[in-house]
Amino acid sequence: MHPPKPWSKTIEPTSYEQIYRFVEQALDECSNLIDHAEADYYQGSVTSINQSTNRPLSVVALQAWSQPLNQLREARLLHDIRNGKAIRELLSDASIGALYGPVTDEGVALMKRVLDKTTEQLYATIPMLINKIADSMNLMEQYFLSFYEIEHIQDIIQNKRKEKLPDDYLETAYTYEKSRWLHIFDVNKSLKNLREMPQRTEDTKGIALSTLSKESQELASRTDCTSLSYLFALPECYYEARRTLHSLRTWLDEDAKYNDFIQTSLKLLEEKYVEAKKAFEIHKSQLSQVEHRAESFRSQLKKLENENAINEKKYDEFETRLNIKEREYISKRLTHEVYEEQLQKLLKQSHDEQDSIGHNLAVGRFQQDIKQLSRELPKLKSQVEAFQTRINLFQKRKDELIEMRIESKKLDKEIQVVLEDKILKENYFNRIQHCRDIMRDIYKCRKTNDLPQKIFYDLPVHNKHSGENEEGKIEVKQFQKLFDCRESFSWKIYLHV
């Protein structure tokens, strides 16, 4: 069985594994190029370097260069050697013996070699390395997509705008997209430094050690080359280039794991979605029950309020009639009692005195009046009690109305509490649903079988569209038709550093 044919970025990719292998190989080539350039810079000198030590090659070489090169610098009374012009003038003076101190042929040859090697690599090796790194980054920009958008991301990573953190459930997608842009920004920044290095070595100000990386400054201090800044033009390039490779390798690793992380986040969101939906439905049902109970209660309250409004009008009328009847009843009852006393007196007199017509008539009248009052008093009492019963009923219904109003307020508060709980559950459910839909869309896009092909031909990425057959695969003819237009599309993202 023949091994799989190596992929070229100019042809249609079949899988992400193919792209990963290509990028990894390209980064390895860049790493080897840096190693070879660095070895050529340090080991190709005329100064013998003891390679048996465990110290880094850069430290061993620069420590060996320090004495002869500093001797040359001092012979021309230079505080620092920062640009190529200073070296060329120094070498010119050395050739005609115009220096102010003794120098060795070994030192002159070493200085010339540093100048030649720096010029050679800055104008040949480093540009080639820049192109290889830029090509790898552009390819990664093209295929390593998060399918998640962060507003003003370029301003955020450059600290021009305050970062607005995402929902916790979208952290996976947000973190990768932000990291993706940080890698692009860092690599572009390093490439910018690499592109500017040739000009910096020839500027009048030259290379100031303080403007270089911390690593280069520490290396200069360790090797006693702090007054030989020009020597660190290439080491700075090696550091910047390795920094880009580290960033791109980190990005490669993150993209390879992105699908699994999205799948894990989506699984969690699916579980949260079920829980949130259940909680929301329960609280929605509770609110419905409370509202139904409140509606029924308000209906009863309204009836009682209408009844009470009618009773309020009747209350004064019944109270007036009650007062009249009470006064009438009391008056007749007192009259009855007085007549009883008078009758008893008359009857007592009848035993002591002889009967007379007048006496008998008086007794008869009292007896007749008492009899009449005895018939009227129960009726009056019954009427008084009836009026009092109605008035008591009015008061009872009024008290019931007050209690129902108090209960209605309690019910309103209960509705408010249940409503707030329902809104909280609904908002949380909507939040989970929104995040789940976003993560689900991301996962579907990333897991699309023909995603590399769609990206290669600059086609929309979604589950199904008019250009797909029943299996969701894009027709080959359509691929070929769009291939000719691909050159007009640029995948490169420019950052203003």
From TrEMBL:
Keywords: Coiled coil. It comes from the Eukaryota. Residues 266-321, 363-390 form a coiled coil. This is Uncharacterized protein.
